[in-house]
What we know:
Blueprint: H1 4-27, H2 50-70, H3 82-85, H4 95-108, H5 119-137, H6 144-159, H7 175-185, H8 188-191, H9 198-212, H10 217-220, E1 240-246, E2 252-260, E3 273-277, H11 289-300, H12 309-313, E4 321-323, H13 346-360, H14 368-382, H15 385-392, H16 413-417, H17 445-452, H18 455-475, H19 478-483, H20 489-520, E5 525-526, E6 535-538, E7 541-547, H21 550-553, H22 559-572, E8 577-579, E9 587-591, E10 605-609, H23 639-648, H24 653-664, H25 699-721, E11 744-745, E12 748-750, E13 756-762, E14 768-774
Helix pairs in contact: 2-5, 4-6, 7-13, 9-11, 11-24, 18-20, 23-24
Amino acid sequence: MLPAFRRAQSTKQKKFESRLLKLAEDELRTDGKSIRDTDLSKWIAPPVSWGYENLVHIAVKRFGDFLQIMGPRDPRITETDPKKYFSLGSRLLTIEIIKLFMLFLARTSTGMIDDRITSKTMQGYISHTIGAAYRCTGVKQFTREEVKQVYTYIRNLEQDGELSNKARFKHVATNNDLDLLIEAAFSDEFSLNVQSIRSVLNIALYMNLFVDSCGRGSDLAYGGASIAEQENHCLCWDHCRFYVVNVDDGDRVIAANIEIKFQKGQRSKDVQKIVTLRLLPSNMAMHDSLRLLVTLALVDGVFGPGATWASLIAVDPGAHSREIIQSHTFIGVPVFRSHRGQPLRSGKLGESIVHLGRIVGFEHNSTSYTLRRGYANMLNVKACVEDRKSLMGHKTNSEIYSHYHSAISSLHVQELFRDIRTVEHAEMHSLSLNRMQQLPQTISPEGWEQVQQDAELVQFALEASQLSAALCEVYGSNAAATRACDPRVPDLLTATSRLKNRRRALLRHIYQEEYRAQFVERAQLHVSPLCTSTTVVNPLSASDLLPIYSVYVSDAQDWVQHVEQEEQQSAEQLSGYENIIAEDARSLELSIEALDSGLMMTDKHVRARLNPALLPEESCKTRLHNINDGGARPKNMSITRVREAMSSGGLTDAALSQIMVEVFSATHRPGKYLQGEEPLLGTSICRFSGIDLSSDTHAPDTAHRAHFTMRQKAAAESFNKHLVPLDTSCSYYSQGPTQKKNPTLCGLRSKTHLGTKQVTFLLENGIATIRTVLF
């Protein structure tokens, strides 16, 4: 055996010889990438995220607009080509040009909270411009002292009144506010305004997972082209690892590890953060991210077709746990998608959260960042600094948490200082967002009249109607004109788009004004000197005293529900009938009652099938991107069913999951159809007539009419079956009228009869009589 020094020398010699061999192979390369041929003088831009790269493009464009406008007007600008300012090795930016650029922005820009932009906004503009110049040229344009001079000039502009010093309050959402938003997501009011009941599951899962992962909106859903490079640079199904875990008492539960790979749309790391999810109690299913995520996976068929919660639990976890295998077709498929398979954008989900805040009654917008500030405050109190930075996606040496602090206090200092509460952190619930219940969700009738009287809207409507009338005069319809490729069709599309955009902008502006007016126009308290009861003065009439709660309730009329009630009433009065009662979706019990007591009727109940055409109950595969078409056929597609199942707390995990999967597998719009009149599950096909309701703008009314026609036919057939044969003797109740203007037949009450029929009755004494019967 060789001595130790000989062995060490031999190892070093081997490494040296290996390097020489690899270097000789590198010199033989012919692709121009050998060490000798590599150009080391080329500038390499520092790696940045996709979002910051877009900020660089915007900064270059903003500076180019400045050169285009101010270049011909100011002789101090010697070079007006923006490409030369951002070319490699260029150093054309000077303090004078930057100051002129800042003065140009201050005089020509308008802020969101003031007529002028704020100093913070100006600092961001200049920082992005200087950073873009360094990234493109590879040369630092200014020294440290020159940069200080730039920011000193910004402060001088603020002091001179060129820039605004207003600051937007950073509102904070507490856990109580999150509970209100989750309850609003599962409310009937929200489900009436979504395209599919899947949207309810998406927004509930998004808010819960947003908080539980301590992330940002673009970490979970596609942030758009300005943040993420590709549509699947977000949370995908292959980033979710599901496990069956064997707990101590022998039970099996489901757990998950969520890998957050694209924080802020970055591409540099494979896995940036892993969040563990566990099941909450079944009565907290609305707030359980794991339960909602597994439900969405079962609806989409991530674990294969026909998988259920019970089949997942049946997997043998072994001694501790075992991962549940997913289908390979879901690799790279985003978790948050629409009912048609398109990836949902974080901006759209954020708008839904704001809409939920309107339903709850928050004065200020309940954005995603209000939730992020909420759990940031919680982590600051209950977690160490390193854990907070890691969970929120901040760098180790980052001090950015100071930006999450709000001027609005989130602590009960009054109670904490006096040690009234024993808890460590006493939060002020629902005071930051300022909640008021029962606020209108759309504009008032007066606001709608204001929209209709807008001069520009009237002009746009006139132009669109004139173009449409001219096309219809020649072709008969706009569709025929489109098929004929008439050159005026693009003009009609432009005019219609201009009309819709103007109407949409007016509706949004008027609604925001009326919504904010509910918080501004307060009624004054009127305290009588002889009475201690608290009353308020009606602002419309100073002599009328109202209870104090009427300040929040009296004028908050929900116009959307009013319109829905009118539509439902008109639908219920189809064909002269006053009321149509929708019954069970599988069968209908037709109660055959007598026109007069004891007149040729029995008390039997006839069960009639609601599918007379024998339509296939199996749903068609109408979804895209492997969204499960669903095999279950629930009786009630309403969100009420899953809401009651969640709040009951008496169901097992498997039973609750079955109900949730059944309800959220529906593709039709929830709430619009009466119970029992929904299309076939997974399709838009009417279960009564077999027609496709997907392109019908009045699909609920069409399904209602088809249901009524079927019931009318079934009632007439049942009536004929129960007529006594002419050669059969019977008795009848002879008192009272022989005709009824509004007979009750088969559960349908009508103002007008459907028809008459003469029936011959043989009495016990053999005398025949004829009666006219309405049906």
